[in-house]
């Protein structure tokens, strides 16, 4: 365990090379590869975990008789709550087994953070999935990267690779101010930049407003949030058009990424199985995404409800993600128990060029507050009338909108610059 942990980055690089060499050439080969990996995974899960054995038995699913990829749909999906109970059960039953494992946690944006445990070999695998985005887009081993990370993942110490001058990097926590982020970024002379949308937009505004000259980037990667169309223009103006939109999660690491000029995200079908389901559990092209990871064996994730709604498109037999539409809890909650999509927020605030930044908070069923940063504060009264009219058009006049004009909008505790937040508990 100690040796594996010490050389986790070297292990990740080796796994990346194997991953790149084993990508199926067509959809038929992919399906065969997925079935082989899935058969091995479900057999392991059934033999080693009470949680999955009970799940499969209750669904009358016999992994030994598993012959078609489509048969996986016989199993129920598992929620974050289910997975949390599965982990807690294992930790309680085998208190010494997972000591020394890599431990991480989600941001807790859905209420309660999810703690995940991975072996160090699995940690290397997760890192290799993230490195894949870099190398697939022209990254060189001597290019300097500038990474904006969560404070809990920020480490000042270099890895063995960095000490040898290979894959040099500079890391800063996203809690730094825009000024500080830009200062350290300029000093780093980085070739590649990556960070959450919130921090990248924050940096872009500071660079543009202060007319700061920066070194051209090979490419830059946005993480953490779906790239909204109101953020794209300023990022292109400041950092260039070679933007890679990354999609992933703490549980799975990288799942998909969008290359420059493409209108869809490439999904990693060789490492993960993607199912898109409608409200009745049937496969569809637009619905909630359910993901299985082929290589996580310590705490398997089989038919895991990630929580996002996605739109997909077929490209030569491969399912790609066209759009990530967000989570169910990112919705306006109504008194009658129904929910209204928060996508209208962009129509109300995102299309007005005088609005530099915005954030909408539902404080109660009949009260919504908006924080707005304007380019020209002298236009507050004119804009407010238009904003309220657009808001009432989409939600009706039963919900009061209050607008607070601010100088800057900082990220949430999880590092994301959320466009919409409902403070109403789900149980309400």
> Termini separation (Å)?
46 Å
Whole-number tally of structural domains:
2
CATH fold name of the largest domain:
Rossmann fold
- Count the DSSP helices: 12
CATH C-level name of the largest domain: Alpha Beta
Mean pLDDT over the full residue set: 87
Shape descriptor reads globular
Strand element count: 19
Gross CATH architecture of the largest domain: 3-Layer(aba) Sandwich
Q: Major sheet: size, sense and barrel closure? A: 7 strands, mixed
Low-confidence stretches: none
Question: How would you describe the overall organization of this protein?
Answer:
The chain is built from 12 helices and 19 strands. It has a 7-stranded mixed beta sheet with strand order 4-3-5-6-7-8-9, sandwiched between helices. Strands 10-11-12-13 form a 4-stranded antiparallel beta sheet, with no helix packed on it. A 4-stranded mixed beta sheet has the order 18-17-16-19, with helices on one face. Helix 2 crosses helix 6 and helix 8 crosses helix 9. Strand 5, helix 9 and strand 6 form a beta-alpha-beta unit. With 428 residues, it is of the alpha/beta class. It comes from Splendidivirga corallicola.
């Amino acid at each position: 365990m100690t040796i594996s942990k010490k050389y986790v980055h070297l292990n990740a690089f080796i796994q990346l090379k194997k991953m790149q060499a084993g990508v199926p050439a067509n959809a038929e080969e992919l399906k065969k590869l997925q079935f082989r990996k899935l058969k091995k995974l479900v057999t392991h899960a059934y033999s080693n975990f009470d949680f999955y054995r009970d799940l499969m038995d209750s669904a009358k699913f016999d992994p030994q008789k598993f012959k078609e990829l489509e048969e996986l749909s016989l199993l129920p999906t598992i929620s974050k709550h289910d997975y949390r109970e599965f982990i807690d059960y294992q930790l309680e039953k085998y208190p010494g087994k997972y000591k020394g494992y890599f431990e991480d946690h989600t941001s807790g944006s859905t209420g309660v953070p999810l703690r995940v445990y991975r072996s160090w070999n699995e940690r290397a695998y997760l890192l290799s999935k993230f490195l894949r985005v870099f190398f697939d887009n022209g990254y060189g081993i001597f290019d300097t990267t500038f990474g904006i990370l969560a404070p809990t993942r920020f480490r000042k110490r270099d890895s063995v690779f960095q000490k040898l001058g290979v894959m040099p990097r500079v890391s800063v926590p996203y809690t730094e101010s825009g000024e500080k982020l830009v200062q350290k970024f300029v000093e780093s002379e980085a070739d590649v930049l990556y960070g959450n949308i919130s921090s990248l937009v924050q940096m872009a505004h500071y660079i543009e407003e202060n007319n700061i000259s920066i070194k051209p980037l090979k490419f830059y990667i946005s993480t953490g949030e779906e790239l909204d169309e109101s953020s794209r223009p300023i990022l292109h103006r400041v950092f260039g058009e070679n933007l890679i939109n990354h999609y992933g999660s703490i549980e799975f690491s990288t799942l998909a990424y969008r290359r420059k000029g493409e209108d869809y995200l490439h999904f990693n079908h060789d490492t993960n199985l993607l199912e898109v389901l409608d409200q009745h559990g049937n496969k569809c092209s637009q619905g909630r995404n359910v993901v299985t990871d082929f290589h996580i064996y310590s705490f398997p994730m089989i038919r895991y409800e990630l929580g996002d709604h996605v739109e997909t498109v077929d490209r030569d037999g491969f399912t790609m993600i066209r759009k990530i539409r967000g989570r169910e809890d990112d919705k306006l909650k109504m008194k009658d128990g129904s929910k209204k999509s928060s996508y209208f927020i962009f129509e109300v605030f995102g299309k007005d060029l005088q609005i530099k930044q915005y954030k909408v908070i539902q404080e109660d069923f009949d009260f919504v507050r908006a924080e707005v940063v304007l380019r020209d504060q002298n236009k507050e009264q004119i804009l407010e009338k238009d904003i309220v009219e657009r808001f009432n058009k989409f939600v009706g006049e039963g919900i009061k909108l209050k607008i607070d004009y601010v100088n800057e909008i900082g990220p949430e505790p999880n590092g994301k610059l959320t466009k919409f937040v409902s403070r109403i508990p789900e149980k309400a």
